[in-house]
Amino acid sequence: MVSVHRLQDPSDAQIEELTQLLLIAHDGLIVPRMMSDSRKDIEEKWHRSGVRIGALEGRIWVVYDPSYTPGPNAVGAPIVAVVVAFGPGAMPMASEAQRALGRDYIDSLSAEGKKWQNETFYPLMEKLVEESGGEEKNFEQVVDSWLTILLATDPVHQRKGYASALLREVKQAAVEDGSIVTLFTFSDELEAYYLSQGFTVEGKIDIPSPLGNWVHREMMWVNAGGAQQEPL
């Protein structure tokens, strides 16, 4: 059984640890590259802002390395997997406090990067939500759901069930709230993985970018009583 822990009020050191974990786990993926002008220093700021806003107004769960043997100067087991999610009524970058935490990232983007996000990526994301079940209905579903924005496992520790265990925590939070889980993903491999976790594809849209095009997916998991339910 994988042991999952909720990380509340993470220290600066833990925020940096999670940032580096996300950098390693998402290395070379097209979405992080496009969101960061293909610059590692900006991608690092992007991941850091995601962790910070999750700590501020969302929820973070982690898995610590179960094989860790502390030395005489050890400060704790390393984190090997993480999920960041926002509960019903909370959305990423929806408050001034969150936006302040993301300012350093936004200010680091090139004019071309900002233009692509504002004129291509975000309008198409809005269209995806609108077309996935009706603009008003589906937007309300997303806002009222547990929205998962980050999920990553250190490549050394993948295929040990850590991501699945983290998703179970998000699902359990949704069950307790009487809500659903929503996420967005961008590859056939990830779509297949989330399907195996009981999610269904609600909509797809082509995203063009200077690095190549991809298909973005909106996926949902519905709790007790819904066709998309998976036993916890």
Describe this structure in words.
- By secondary structure, the chain is an alpha+beta fold.
- It has a single domain (about 5-220), classed as Aminopeptidase (3-Layer(aba) Sandwich), CATH 3.40.630.30.
- The chain is about 45% helix and about 20% strand.
- The protein has eight helices and seven strands.
- The chain has helices spanning about 10-25, 30-35, 40-55, 95-110, 110-130, 135-145, 160-175, 190-195, and strands at about 5, 60-65, 80-85, 145-155, 180-185, 200-205, 215-220.
- β4, α7 and β5 form a beta-alpha-beta unit.
- α1 crosses α3 (about 40-55).
- The longest helix is centred in the middle third of the chain and has 21 residues, at about 110-130.
- Label the overall shape: globular
- The CATH superfamily bears the name Gcn5-related N-acetyltransferase (GNAT)
Assembly context of the chains: single chain
Largest sheet, spatial ordering of strands: 1-2-3-4-5-7-6
Q: Total number of β-strand segments? A: 7
Secondary-structure element series: EHHHEEHHHEHEHEE
Find the structural class using helix and strand composition.
alpha+beta
In the CATH scheme, the class would be Alpha Beta
CATH topology grouping = Aminopeptidase
Average pLDDT figure = 92
Terminus-to-terminus distance: 13 Å
Q: Spans with pLDDT under 50 lasting ≥5 residues?
A: 226-231
As a percent range, the share of strand residues is 15-25%
Tell me the radius of gyration: 17 Å
- From the coordinates shown, what is the CATH architecture? 3-Layer(aba) Sandwich
Instruction: Provide a count of the helices.
Output: 8
Largest sheet features = 7 strands, mixed
Domain N-acetyltransferase: 81-224
GO molecular function: acyltransferase activity, transferring groups other than amino-acyl groups
Pfam family, one: Acetyltransf_7
Protein name: N-acetyltransferase domain-containing protein
